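Reviewer 2 asked us to include a model.

Predict the structure of this chain.
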Amino acid sequence: MIKYHVCKDKTITEIKVSGHANYKKHGEDIVCAAVSTATILTYNALERMGFKEQLNVSVSDGFFHLKVLTPNESITHLLENLSDTLSQLELQYPKYIKNQKEG
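Predicted model (structure tokens):
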């Protein structure tokens, strides 16, 4: 299962995603592919917009962690979009992706 957690203060400060969906075998897993695409697309957009120095990012197999060091409106909007995308995927595939909410 893929687990994700979105940390918020007034805006999103951190997003962590880990695990594998195991929806299908490797190479056919559309849930893993969708999550990977959403996270990497978001990071690539932030980097191309010149925000790399305002972020701390770690990416490896089955793991994505992005922490905002210096927030701004553009970063906030892109991270809200990522959070919404993960939530929509959770609604479509509840057995394979879960939000690890605090509390």
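The chain has a mean pLDDT of 95. The first helix runs from residue 30 to 48. We have added this to the supplementary material.
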